[in-house]
Design goal:
2 domains; flat; 113 residues; mainly alpha
Length: 113
């Protein structure tokens, strides 16, 4: 039976409240992981060299940041770019030309305050 607007029997779970099943699962998982993590060093020592490398490769994305194209860009190219844009006026071309003639806009198109 679908929910009908104006239902007075139940308002549902309050906004922001946690689902009881999800909360219990998270608590059980937390307890399990707390105990399981204690066994990791012993299990790691039992691995051969190839398995250890595989383990580290799978674990590394959770420890070190992933290199993206953004990290590879030379920041010297963007040195002249402003961090914040302050001039956000929307004007017509005619008004822009008039302001430029009056000396209120510099040669780069920035507003002179």
């Amino acid at each position: 039976m679908p929910f009908k607007k104006g239902n007075s029997f139940s308002q549902g779970r309050p906004k922001g409240s946690e689902n009881k099943g999800s909360k219990e699962f998270k608590e059980a998982l937390d307890l399990f992981m707390t105990e399981a993590i204690k066994e990791v060093p012993e299990l790691y020592n039992q691995l051969d060299a190839k398995e250890k490398l595989d383990y580290l490769a799978k674990l590394s994305p959770y420890i070190t940041p992933r290199i993206t194209e953004q990290h590879l860009i030379d920041d010297s190219e963007n040195a002249d770019q402003p961090l914040f844009i302050t001039n956000t006026m929307v004007i017509t071309n005619e008004r822009y030309q008039k302001m430029k003639e009056d000396g209120r806009i510099d040669e780069e198109g920035n507003l002179i305050e």
